[in-house]
Amino acid sequence: MELLTLVLTGFVCLSGIVYYFLRREQQQWSRLGVPIAKNPHLLYGNIRGIFQKEHSCEVLQRLYREFKGRGLKLGGIMNFFQPAVLVVDPEISKSILVKDFNKFHDRGIFVDSAGDPLSATLFSLEGAEWKTMRTKMSPTFTSGKMKYMFGSVVKVADQLKEYVAENCTKGNIELKNILQRYTMDVIGNVAFGVECNSIKNPSSEFRLMGLKANEFDGIKFFKFFIGGTYKSFAKKIKMKVVEKDVHNFFMSLVHSTIQYREANGVQRNDFMDLLIKIKNNGKLSDEPNSGGEGITISEIAAQCFIFFTAGFETSSTTINFCLYELGRNPNIQDRLRREIEESIAKDGGELKYDTLFGMSYLDRVVSETLRKYSPVDNLFRVSNSPYTPEGCDFTIPAGTMFQIPIHSTHHDPDYFPNPQCFDPDRFLPEAVKSRHPFAYLPFGEGPRICIGMRFGQMQTKIGLVTLLRNFRFAPISETPDRLDFDAKTFVLTPKTGVYLKIEPIARMPKV
């Protein structure tokens, strides 16, 4: 009896301590005079919806509307029991991403280059380590380097065209799946130098490992939270955010690829080739500002890993969403197809890099797709010193996570009237000039803007041009009027497959 009493007393005391800790954390914003979102849950805070099968973009949009409806520039929220700030005013976004970048250069993501090497990506690295790696990597993503890779991407796009041509007459093709395989094959080719062949073989190990790496369930979300909030503790318990089999697969792939190329003198116009040059020479020979101490094989593996995991899903979903909107807006689809054909005809019928990036309507269509379906729904930065936002009479402590809700801003009628309407002319030069520049942030902005932006645009546009030149897309009975988003993915992804009617376009044979 005494033992039971002792256990119960201990449990009650521990519960009281936990309750006190959680309530104290939630009351931080009130103590500082920062306006806070209504009704935070004791444990989940304001993000409970994520565990109720809502995508984070929908959770943050509710909070954004609440704060904006109260006339606030920003507000305090609770990510679980961690106080965070949700930014509403794009002028404050500008300060965080550009003007005050020296205070916000880190994302606050778990990194352990020794215990979990694939976590040490350019996306996650902090401070001096990030700056050094960014300096080394930047020359690999110039327009000149993209031109070297252009032909490889076109070849994979031709394989996509052949697959669709062979299968569109047999029945409806699920676009989400095949477009994902296209971008996997592209990045596998240029990042790892391997022929993935997932277009023809969807069960390839490369594809299965890529899908597993991008799964984002509650356990992985909690790992990211613990790793970002309690980094020392996470390292002490040797927490890993990358699964063991995924880690072993990609590390082995990079090791074997580098070993084979160096032993046989193999050179290719791809990302891996550029990284090997940095490893061996300390810099790319034609880039005088990319110096340093080279790069290790583990660092190469980490950068290839993030290039792959961040690149294949973002581009494939962008193409997917774009085709969905073009199918529902045939006038826009026809106008875009005319521009594509006229532009390529001027180049003798061959798609070239400069021609691709010279298509202004294509650029507007892709920009509007990224506006309505931004692959990453929010940007996040951690302050390294106390911060008093302009126009506010309170100071936010160092170490606070700031979240910039891209999806919410992109759907704010004050910046984009009738936001559910798909309208590429929102991105005409005069329309862009009339808008706050930080109301549209699909790739981020400032020194930590997405380094792979140009490559992502290239593989997206090549895929779209190839498909639209050869096929016409239209909705069918299975095509939804509105797309729901998969809560289990970090990247904005349709919850279900997207089906469209795909009709081949008869092309005149080349003379």
Give the helices and strands, then pairings.
Layout: H1 2-26, H2 28-32, H3 56-69, E1 74-79, E2 82-87, H4 90-99, H5 127-137, H6 143-167, H7 175-191, H8 205-213, H9 218-229, H10 231-236, H11 244-264, H12 271-281, H13 297-328, H14 330-345, H15 353-356, H16 360-372, E3 379-382, E4 401-404, H17 406-410, H18 429-433, H19 453-470, E5 471-474, E6 501-504
Parallel strand pairs: 2-4
Antiparallel strand pairs: 1-2, 3-4, 5-6
Helix pairs in contact: 6-7, 6-19, 7-13, 11-13, 13-16, 13-19
Plain-language structure description:
The chain is mainly alpha-helical and 511 residues long. It has 19 helices and 6 strands. It has helices at residues 2-26, 28-32, 56-69, 90-99, 127-137, 143-167, 175-191, 205-213, 218-229, 231-236, 244-264, 271-281, 297-328, 330-345, 353-356, 360-372, 406-410, 429-433, 453-470; strands at residues 74-79, 82-87, 379-382, 401-404, 471-474, 501-504. A 4-stranded mixed β-sheet has the order 1-2-4-3.
